[in-house]
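Deliverable D5.2: sample structural annotation.
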Amino acid sequence: MIWNIRNFVIIAFVILMWMIMDHLHVNNALAFVIIFILMFLILYVPILFTVLWDSNLKRIEKFLMSNKSKPEYHLFYALAHEIDEEVEDSIRLLLQKYKGIHKQALYKTVFAFYKKEILTVKEEIEFIKPLAYKNYYRAIVCMEEGNMRKLTKSFTRFQRLG
């Protein structure tokens, strides 16, 4: 683990919170739970907000650039900016990191869509495990092919699952 200023600030915060809880005579178990919840909120809520709800493109891009070393985030940046080499590198790293067939199928499907290789997409979709994801990608294939009848069927299945 690389020790940087952020880690020292986190440790200092935890020690300070523990001292405050001790001074207020809070039960140790309750103090631990309170500190854990506070740390979760401080560390992960900003990330969750940015990833799930933020619509400010400059903040999202800044977030993706600050997490460029993580292929899970960098993939989206590279896809958005159509940087072929970085998309391929991110996919390669993700396929090395996640060995599960279902997870790999998701990344291979995303890459095949990026390359506009619909036949590969159709093959990989069959290995995707969450049925909602499988139907989502099937619907996209139907839109690409202009097959509205199948699209309606896939969309109906997707709505029932979601």
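Annotation notes: The radius of gyration is 22 Å. The chain has a mean pLDDT of 86.
The annotation will be released with the project's public dataset once the embargo ends.
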